[in-house]
Amino acid sequence: MLAIMTARHHHYLSQCYLKGFTKGKAKKSKLTVVDISQRKIFETIPRNVGGIRDFNRIEIDGLDPNILESALSDFEGVVATSLKRLSETGDFFGQTKNSILHLVALLAVRSPERREHMRTIRAQIAEVAMGVMLDSKDMWETHAEKIKAGGDNHDAVSASYEEAKRFYESKEYEIIVSRESHIRSEMIQVDAIVALLLKRNWQVLKASDNAGPFITSDSPVILSWCEPDSIPLMYRHSPGFGLRGTEVYFPISQDVALLGRFDGLDNVLNASRELVAILNSKMLCNLKKQIYFPRVGFEFYDDKKKIIVGNHILKYVRP
Fold it and tell me: What is the pLDDT of residues 147-172, one digit of tens each?
């Protein structure tokens, strides 16, 4: 009997997306990668970045563990066609628009860093809930009786109040959020974000002949305020996909990018050298660890509002 090999290296950054930033615009073409955390620049193919083991694996009885990875692979086939069509024609409507905005939503909420961030938040909430439950013996026993009455896991409340309190205060435990729980939350968020993205007007930005390439990163979807200085400080770092006065920037390839606003225009615009440099600077402020582009000659602005060539990037960007 032949063994069926299951792919275990899963990409959270689609290869069909990253190939638009390679020198030859193909999966086997090479990207230039700047790894800010390791302070190095190297070349590789899209397959070798933006992926980790079992990112999409679902371990639920009765389900193929590769079901999500397979579904995303099929989706990327559709996306690849849409990305190519948009880059070639500038037409952003119908199936092209729908599939690309789904890609934007997926990339906005699915990454190892975001999962760890969400795990930390959920662990903190669980810590607070346990502290409240153990605030008194009466409260502990009341919760324990409710759990038992509901027919749930009795092992969870088999310890005495004193034992549970001692364990809680020892902090010798780790709160784990399952991968399946992360995936479920992400897919709910994707549906909500796509609905909001569809309500925006979208400009298709095409890099002018004298402009360098658009760059992308391991955090390629940028949600920001259009006029941040007019936003109160307490809200300035928390724009939302449904809030007016915000814009979504997403580079499609080295030649084309999208800019979406609720009060913007649906049109195609030639992006000047200065605009491309501004948008590349926004991407440099949004990355987690790595940026990707076809050659070192991209441009960005430094803090003195001077255009800098990308081969000096490590002097200007810090982990």
Answer: 777 665 555 567 788 888 898 889 88
Strands (E) in 102-245, as ranges, are 201-207, 216-217, 222-225
* Residue 286 token pair: 């949004």
- Contact indicator for 275, 267 with CB cutoff of 8 Å: no
Q: Which helix (H) or strand (E) holds 67?
A: helix 67-89
> What is the Cα–Cα distance from 214 to 222, expressed in whole angstroms?
14
Whose tokens are 């990112």? That residue is 55
Q: Please report which helix (H) or strand (E) contains residue 249, including its range.
A: strand 246-251
pLDDT at 2 over 60: no
Q: Report domain extents, the chain.
A: 9-110+199-315, 111-198
Kind plus residue range of the DSSP H or E element containing 116:
helix 112-133
What is the per-residue pLDDT across 236-287, written as a single tens digit (0 to 9) for each?
Answer: 888 999 999 999 999 999 999 999 999 988 999 999 999 999 999 999 999 9
